Amino acid sequence: MVTLVVGATGFVGTQVCHLLRGRGHDVRALVRDTSSPDKVARLRSLGVSLVTGDLKDRPSLDAACRGADTVVSTASSTLSREAGDSIETVDHAGQLALVDAAASTGVERFVFVSFPAVDMEFPLQTAKRAVEDRVRCSGMAYAILQPTCFMEVWLSPALGFDVAGGAAQIYGAGESKISWISFLDVAKFAALAADAPEAANTTIGLGGPDALSPLEVVRLAERATGKTLLVNQVPEEALRAQFAAADDPMQKSFAALMLYYARGDIVDMAPARRVFDVAAMKTVRQHLESAAGVGHAV
To answer: What is the bridge-based pairing of β-strands 161-162 and 167-171?
Structure first.
């Protein structure tokens, strides 16, 4: 089975490639001329074949999809620093072009990593929902995965949650529970969705094993380090003001996602477990211990 992974140089996509190779897939990765040489070398070391292309270049997508049985797309502009990448060019138009290219070249299954529905409109959500609709109408079997907050992103120094540094920034009151999930587990579900018969034509919410409020996460971090964290809370009113004032699509989308975090999201994993055989999942405690330099990462 030939599986094309789009977003293969990202942290989820690279792990998907690794897992698919372990499952015996012939994995093809879409990379760009400007992709990190180290990330490309990592893919080569996994035995992945490389094809050069770009979500903004439809002919390159046709060429990449040709001969593939399955496409797994984890790509997003949210962490990109590439010139020309944006929510509109990558997450919206680029992903729509990929779905169309896959359908027109005979791809049988499309796996799309999205996120849960949020009760407000913002550019990234508009893009994700449009792609989900196109996938469902494409004629291909599909699996749409909607993971909640990645612990490696939201509980990281990049967003102010610095366990080792003794500081924690949280959004909102910090009392609403979130089913934090690891990118490693999202990759597991995406790799399984590439060929699991039960995953065909499904839209599945994903969360981790712990539904914890941000303040509960702070207390776990304090137990892991034996130190009191300096907590900075960004009030929900400030987040709403940031959302209202933002005129850049990416800034508006990040403000909306912070509000999503502030309001919490508990995911019922029973539907996912009926489809996927995933036993142990990474816990928030394991993530915090790893971030603090104690315990063992999973």
So the answer is: antiparallel
- Contact in structure between 292 and 221 (CB atoms under 8 Å): yes
Q: Which two tokens stand for residue 33?
A: 């001329």
User: What tokens were used for 62?
Assistant: 């046709």
d(CA 291, CA 210): 17
Among 259, 254, 241, which residue's Cα sits nearest to residue 176? 259
Query: How much is the pTM?
Result: 0.95
> Using one digit for the tens of pLDDT, what is the confidence trace for 175-184?
999 999 999 9
Confidence category of residue 297, pLDDT binned at 50, 70, 90: very low
Residue with tokens 């879409």: 30
260 phi and psi angles, rounded to 5 deg: -60, -45
Query: Hunting for tokens 């005979």 — which residue is that?
Result: 106
Cβ-in-10-Å burial (0-12, 13-18, 19+) of 38 comes to exposed
